[in-house]
Specification:
The strands form two sheets. The protein has a seven-stranded parallel sheet, with helices on both faces. The chain is globular and about 65 Å long. It has about 425 residues and is an alpha/beta fold. The chain is built from 19 helices and 13 strands.
Length: about 425
């Protein structure tokens, strides 16, 4: 172990007695689950089943949702294995509670302190650990490696800032990355950065390209479709602060002909968005208060896990998180344009696509996505699509085809993980 990693371990061990107090403060701030907060200290919330167990880890919503196709692959091809999924945020835990199949265990990941990590690993005794797009937590990774747990870092994305930080401690970076038996970044840029830090790269895979269409409640779809009637629907998906007002203002001239639905990236912002839009004279309703979309009222879908429902209602989708820089704010880098594409919906995105450059370029080239410079460009594009349903349908089908072509990475991942998997238990169900 290098000197910086040893210092990190000693410091986290010395500070670990403060962890319960810090976690209690986060509980009061609504950032931790008060019932399950001890899981963050490595205290298991449930017993470990007998047999081999595979541990899949993602930090927040995007990472953990990208694990769902991997979970399904394990259940299909290795039903003898117990699957444990860990995550670090309340929102990811809420979504996983809805989306994980029965029998798959979820726990909150332990804080990166020696005793918490040891308690977690000693209880769950994973036969394999798969980290998705994860921050590199040294204690957790190295403690697993010390217990001879095979590790894979997959769909890995490392920013320029993070890479520069690790580059200050090159030997430590090589030690942490060397704990992984398989490293599969999500793109060439991350591969180059990880390779420079000392990782051995085993190919590329972006799990966010491998997902199935988002789920929905069929009864809710029927009810909302009836409420909307025959008005064309424009859904603005995964919006961030400032985008709602700018897009609502830009689309105001079309308010007499379309139903506008805003789906904020963080649903808890719903009441604040409604208040801001109301001050500007826009009529607004909130899904969280039982309202349904319809008419010329802007509907805010401020509920968790219903994006699949609203995308299916859409005639045109506008991708949020993509207009920050042109509004003078933070560039959020965009959100997953494959979500509407998998459902065959024509979509429009703003100029910020740094998190999805390759996917955005592929969808634009296929004719399944339009990229605009500012919200003021939206009315012309949307009007064209609404006035020409045949063109809109063709654009959606092109998007669906391009999304299917983009999702072939799961087979590559499964091949790479094969040598790390424990043998099938005698008599196990296959």
């Amino acid at each position: 172990m290098t000197l910086p990693l040893l210092v990190y371990r000693l410091l986290t061990r010395a500070l670990e007695p403060l962890a319960p107090r810090l976690l209690d403060a986060r509980v009061k701030q609504g950032k931790e689950d008060p019932v399950r907060v001890d899981e963050r200290l490595g205290v298991a919330g449930t017993d470990r089943p007998d047999g081999d167990l595979v541990w899949l880890h993602g930090v927040s919503v995007g990472e953990t949702l990208s694990l769902l196709p991997v979970v399904e692959r394990f259940r299909r091809d290795r039903p003898d294995l117990t699957i444990l999924v860990t995550s670090g945020t309340l929102t990811s835990a809420d979504l996983l509670a809805r989306r994980l199949p029965a029998g798959v265990i979820h726990q909150f990941a332990p804080v990166d302190a020696p005793a918490a990590v040891a308690a977690f690993l000693d209880h769950w005794r994973p036969a394999l650990g798969v980290f998705v797009e994860s921050e590199l937590w040294p204690n957790l990774i190295l403690a697993a490696d010390e217990r001879s747990v095979p590790l894979a870092l997959v769909s890995a994305r490392i920013t320029e800032k993070t890479a520069a930080g690790w580059a200050r401690f090159p030997a430590s970076a090589r030690t942490v990355l060397g704990a992984f038996d398989v490293v599969m970044p999500q793109d060439e840029t991350s591969a180059d950065r990880l390779r420079t830090l000392g990782a051995r790269i085993d190919g590329e895979v972006n799990l966010k390209l491998s997902g199935a269409p988002l789920p929905h409640d069929a009864a809710a779809f029927t009810a909302l479709s009836a409420a909307i009637d025959d008005r064309p629907v424009v859904v603005v998906a995964s919006t961030h602060d400032g985008e709602e007002q700018a897009i609502a203002h830009a689309l105001a001239p079309l308010s007499d002909r379309l139903c506008l639905i805003l789906v904020p990236r963080h649903p808890e912002r719903g009441p604040g968005i409604a208040a801001a839009l109301s001050r500007e004279g826009h009529p607004v309703t909130l899904r969280s208060r039982g309202a349904v979309p319809g008419g010329d009222v802007i509907h805010i879908a401020d509920t968790l896990g219903e994006l699949g429902l609203f995308l299916r209602l859409a005639d045109v989708v506008v991708m949020g998180g993509s207009f920050g820089s042109c509004l003078g704010g933070q560039p959020w880098g965009g959100h997953n344009p494959l979500e509407p594409a998998r459902l065959g919906r024509p979509a429009v995105t703003g100029p910020d696509a740094s998190n999805w450059q390759a996917v955005t370029a592929a969808l634009v080239a296929a004719g399944g996505l339009v990229q605009v410079r500012t919200p003021d460009d939206l009315p012309a594009v949307i009007t064209r699509l609404l006035d020409d349903p045949a063109t809109a349908r063709l654009m959606g089908e092109r998007a669906r085809t391009a999304a299917a072509d983009a999702g072939a990475g799961l087979d590559r991942l499964w091949t790479a993980l094969g040598p790390l998997l424990p043998p099938v238990s005698p008599g196990a169900r296959r």
